[in-house]
Amino acid sequence: MIEMRSDTFTLPTGDMMAAIAAAPLGDDVYGEDPTVRELEETAAHTLGKESACLMPSGTMANLAAIMAHCPRGAKVLVGAESDIYLYEAAGAVVCGGVTYEPLPNQPDGTLLLDDLRAGLAEDAEDPQFALPGLICLENTQNRCGGVPLSPGYQDEVRRFADEQGLPVHLDGARLFNAAVALGVSPAEVARAADSVQFCLSKGLGAPIGSVVAGSADFIASVHRIRKMLGGGMRQAGIVAAAGLVALADAGRLAEDHANARAFAEGLAGIPGIEIDPDTVRTNILLFRVVAGGFTPASFVHTAHRAGLRVGEFGHGRIRAVLHSGVSRQDVTTALDRVAKALAEGPA
Question: What is the dihedral of CA 213, 214, 218, 224, to 10 degrees?
């Protein structure tokens, strides 16, 4: 089976397993796990921030960041196609008393400044309106096909946020994919944000964990919220050790990007598939099945029978995600299996 539903299906490498076995450990709730401290210091330095905090998941990382930024009753300006809004179980509402103001994402993943402006309270002095407390961006933007947001665009949002007195949080779950695709440093991708989270367990290939980075005072708040949410971990160096290996090998993401482009170009040559390979910038690609009789669900099922796992992704689209567990030969085989699934017809 070729697995392309998500890059969360990556398995830890031999180097990661060796690092886990050899990691010096302590109790991280007491701040005494040396491997966790090394990861947090490395991550903060890599992103150009003062401090960082290891989290069990990206969902908890984003939630803790929102809660650290926003008082209860505030609202977050966020993309309507963002993972924070769609895939994180309304955690900010349930746990933080913070509501969402979903704004339309453009095809390139951006939020227009005019839309951000429209998301502000009509009258900040009127007690009927929830006041904005935070702007959230996502880089790369998953639901828009893994597109990277440029540092220049993020600078525009930063200037707007400063004019309004708002902080900016970056959901950088695949931040390192963005950096590789744009040919810039991870710190350049994170520069315009007050806080940023990235996932160790997606394309970077570690088995678990995410990191939040920001100022020292902000991260102190995140530590407290992590404990409150049940995210305090003890000998978490076994998680951090794999993360350190992942960060050291982040350059290999370029291989996933190349494989995604090759898969997209191959799909474009198959009758019944609709995709523009030029839209594929990182490890995510979105396509449509226009062959007669197929729905997205029936194609996903038929492809599974043929030996390829892909997923429905809303708006009539199918998503495929390339990662370290998919080789260039797997890409060739996957194209054959797509053709086979189309030839077989809907399951």
Answer: 10
